[in-house]
Structure formats: C-alpha cells, structure tokens
Amino acid sequence: MALKTWRELPIGCVVSEPGSASEYHTGSWRSQRPIWDNKKCIKCGICYVFCPEGCVQQTEDGFFVANMDYCKGCGICAHECWPRAIAMIEEG
Amino acid sequence: MGKRIGMEVAVAVAEAVGLCNIDMAAVYPITPQSHIAEHLSDLVADGKIDAEFVTVESEHSAMSAVIGSSGAGARSYTATSSQGLMYMHELLPIASAMRLPITMAIANRAVSGPLNILNDHSDIMPQRDSGWISIFVENGQESIDMSIIAFKIAEHKDVMLPVNINIDGFQLTHMVEPFEMPTQEEVNKFLPPFVPHATLHPAKPVTMGAFAMSDYFTEIMKAKDEALKNSKKVILEVWDEWAKLFGRSYKPVETYKADDAEVLMLTMGSMGETAQMAIDELRAKGIKAGLVKLRLWRPFPFEEIKAAIKNAKKLIVTDRANSFGGPGGPVFSEIKSALYAEVQRPLIYNYIYGLGGRDVPVGDFTGMFEKVLADTANKQADTYEFWGVRE
Predict the structure, then answer these.
(1) Binning pLDDT at 50, 70 and 90, where does residue A92 land?
(2) What percentage of chain B reaches a pLDDT higher than 90?
(3) For chain A, which terminal residue's Cβ has fewer other Cβ atoms within 10 angstroms, N or C?
(4) Which residues span the domain enclosing A35?
(5) Mutate which of A4, A5, A6, A20 to test chain B, going by most B C-beta atoms within 10 A?
C-alpha cells in the first residue's frame, strides 16, 4: 500500500472506514516470534487467552498458532505457557 | 446598526457568544475569566440561548468536552485563564490536529509561581506551538467583535482550526466600556451555520484522533502547518467582511503614526492604548515615534510586520512574558527571527514589562523611548531588560 503524501491526508486524519485498522500489519514491528512445541502443548489455551493482540488461533487439531500479520512478538504467550511449550526465537 | 451599551467586557463577551448560536459551552471558572463562565451559564439557564452548558470539574475536562462536542458537530465554546490554560495544554495540539473549530477566550493572567491573579501574557506564550489561531485584542469592542468573528474564521471550510482570543485579564475583562453590540439579526447574517468536516454519528461511523506512527507523523505535522499558514487568507477575508458590515476594520498588524517614525514600539493587547498616548506626547515634543500593534500572533504575519517596520531605525519590542534563560521575551525573539534575512532592519530593543499586573502608565512608555534614543552608541540593542525592576 503506497503511503499518502501530506496533501492526500483527510482533514484532521479522520478514519472514515470502520475496521480498517486490520489493514495495518503490526507484525512488522516484531523482533522475536513464538514457536509452539506441540509435544509439550496440553491445549489448555492460555496463550489464546493472554495474547493482547488476539492473534493466537486454535487449529482443527486443537493446537495453537499465531497470525504473523499481527503478532508483535511480545512474548506474553511464552511467558504464560506453564508447560513451556512456546519458545521465542529471534527473527532473522 | 447594533445598540450602543455600557457593560463589563467579560459579560459583554458572554453576550456576544450568546448571539453566535452556540450548541455547547464547557467553561470552568477561573479569575479573571469567571464572569464569562457565569454570564454564559446564566444565558443558558434563563433560556435565552438554546445550548448545553456543561459544568465540568476542571479545565482539562472543559477542553476534553469541547473536543468531543466539536467532533460530534456542535458549535462549541470555552474560556479560561492562566493555570486553567496550562491545565488544558496537553489537549490544545490535539484539538488543532483533529481540525476542530473550537473557539476559546483567554483572560490573560500571569502563571504561578508565585501565585498571582493579575494580567500578563505568560499563560498564552507556552501555548504558542499548539497549532491554534491566536488573536490579541486591545479593547472591549475588539473583544466582542473577535468573539463573534472567531467562529466564522474557525469554521471556514478552508480553515477548520481552533481559535483563541486573548483578552487581557482585569485590564480588559473587568472594565466597564461602551460597546456597539451587534443585533441577533446582524450576527445571523454574518455567521453561517456550522458545517463540520466530519461528525461522530452511529449511522456513519468514523474514527477521530487515531494513532499514527513514524510513517505518517511527519506528513500530519506538515499538513497542520500548511493549514495554519493558509488560514491567514481567510482571516483577512473575514475581517474585511466584518469591516463592510460593521464599519470596524481589523488587520494582522496595525500602526499608529508609524509611517515616518524613526523609533517604533511594538505592543500586543491592551497596552497599545496607553502606548498610543505616549506616542502623542513624544510627537508633541518633536520626537518621531510610532506604534505597531501585533494583533495576529498565529499565523504569524511576517509580511505585514516587515512592511510596518522597514523604515524605522530602532524598534522597541515589548513583551509581557519571558523565556527564562533564553533570548528574552517571546515576541522579541519572533520579531528578530522574522527580520533576520532583511538587508535593512532596525536595531531591536526588548523590554519585558507589566508582569503579574504591574501598572504601566504612559510615562513608562515614554521612558522606554527616551532610554532607547539615549543609547546613541547602540550598546543596548539586541538585549532584553526587565523594565522597572528594582536593582
């Protein structure tokens, strides 16, 4: 998405399109990413509950993954995961 | 033609705002602004105007409330002074960035400390960079005229910016003066209904004041700067329209006996009237003295200032606030900056005066001229001094 020039900004930067925040991929801020070890995962869902971005989803087999478009790599899921099934690894 | 009346200036300001078909006012009382809050709340309570008067618990809330109501599309008004303005400070750049045409009267008063309730300009000067249109008035008539005019400037589709009107506390707000108060019909003719650039309404949801990161922040600041600079064209147009309708003409920079003056003085606000008397006294003695009054503080009228002072040998800039540990008074440093690239420019002297309500009689102004004229070696040029300070 091409960035607008100052002349193209709407007056007062009013956002007139509801829900357009989802177009902003906050995952670009990430310096670490969560990796699930499904051998350790007990499918309790605490990562899903604690993710402040709401970007952790449950897959059909009951395990969890993060949507990397929005995961900022904050590490809260890894911190809360008491079976220690989530590791935070550096982004390349 | 409006009716000629005698009234206290603060009360007359509230009367004038009452003619402007406001939808909402949120004003927290603070000396010397309180009479505006009180009289406006009377007008609402007595059913004389159809508006909401929101009794907020602080100035921070007052500014927050008018930001919200202006965003909702309501013509919104507030007024404050000194500490109240300082308390609003963090919200002022938000109102301008959101391009909300709020109108605010400031009854200028010294900021603490020590606590002082009297007049100077130390409350407005720290708000200089908040992106508001900033106008100074000299007398009661200007106070009410600008209170009405401000809505039209702020709400113009090419402006959409908040406006503050600086009215010297006590020295203007508490004076009883004769006014020509426009009639309701005249104001209705002059002031069109408010057409907001966007409104908060569930039928058409929008987000105002959203977050912006480094990828857009620079562009947003540039857009705000251009909006404020471009507002001058509309300000001039609206003042001209007012002059045609009411016969009272306003300019960003006004002069008095300045054309052939060798020494000029620059004032802002109510001091201009006293300084004018000093000019007459000096002229009677054969001294070529003149006066420049700066009415429009933001957007800063660079061209008009340059034109007004280009022929003077010396210019006395008077300031009613100081930039501590800095270059002197804020007006002084702005004028110096405006003239930096000029090949021909006067020597500039700066007197910081009338702080915390200290009286400045005519003799003080003539004294400033005499001191500057006596500085034949120009040793005091480009310096600032606290006028009348006890050494």
Answers:
(1) confident
(2) 98
(3) C
(4) 27-90
(5) A6
